[in-house]
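Input record (one chain):
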Amino acid sequence: MTQIEAARSGKITDEMKAVADQEEVLPEYIRSGVAEGTIIIANNKHRNKKPCGIGSGLTTKVNANLGTSPDNSDLSNEMEKLHIAVKYGADAVMDLSTGGDIDEIRMRFINESPVAVGSVPIYNAAVEAVRNEKSIVDMTPEDMFRAIEKHVSDGIDFITVHCGTTLEVLDKLKNQGRIADVVSRGGAFLIEWMIYNEEENPLYSQFNRLLEIAREYDVTLSLGDGLRPGCLADATDKPQIQELIILGELAARAREYGVQAMIEGPGHVPLNEIEANVLLQKKLCNGAPFYVLGPITTDIAPGYDHITAAIGGAIAAKAGADFLCYVTPAEHLCLPTIEDVKQGVIASKIAAHVADLAKGIRSACERDKSMGKARKELNWNAQAELSMDPDLVMDVRSKNPSSDNEACTMCGKFCAMKGVREYLSGFKAK
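The corresponding structure, as predicted from the sequence alone:
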């Protein structure tokens, strides 16, 4: 049985128990959420690694996009990025490779990652077409489904599939007059294919075939947003919303078939529209977990988009988004470096944690409370351990020694924490 089928029959699986332990909730809570489709467990049944629970009432999760490009296909570098992403708290990673031996790269990610691994099989199909001296529009539906089956049989836990990018949505796009048109790579491949072949998107027209493959491996479908806005001016327009409506319908079909599904959401959204986007997704998709890229809250900060995305991510997660795709400082500029990956993960983890505090997630609140106590006690080791980047805390501290070992160079002997603590201690002693 798949996770949904087990949940509906009243069975609590080992994966549900593991997620419940991680989240510090009752296993029945996880079972109920999986049965309803408001929680998914990203875990290919043939992979047997740490399951990742995403959805209602759980801690906000963070994904790190990794992978090669035709201009940079250094596998060892990507594996180092994987280890850095996991070290700084990524709950999942996606292999988006389009350069080098992408089959080998995918297997390395699957075998070496201790966290859930996702992929976008249409990339694989497109790369194969080009390498066989064909155009992307020459891909056949068989090519697309062959790539999907290969990815999930290899052990991928969740796949992005742009099933809602249909001819109907394409008509909306033609009439919209967008500034940025299409920025989703997978969405662009399928739109080009539909226009050239004058046929419906095979991932939509043959959705039942996709469900059969996903059900066999209990793989989660991440229903991709091929029409996500690529600039603020395009946010919340007709193509985006029409696609979302279709994705909600497809998510319902997936649940009925015993397949887990989550919805991918917008990329560039003004601050004042983020909450509305999340609430709309939850309404149209019957509470399915929401996976957002950022969202990026201004278009004018290339090099700092890990910050613009963290701002949007915190607001989106507070409003109900469940899964944040990190954005690195290299977004819109180049393939991220190892340091970019670190900065992107930390920024997104901060956003997720801030939202979890606002949502009253107990583990998040306890961590902040512990930090407050450590600061009061001037316990620098504890402060480092509780921080997002312990190495940075201790490095900065060691390079900036104070004349008072307990305090820091900001206040030194005028440390508020130390002074008030000593006076209060003396007052209480009397």
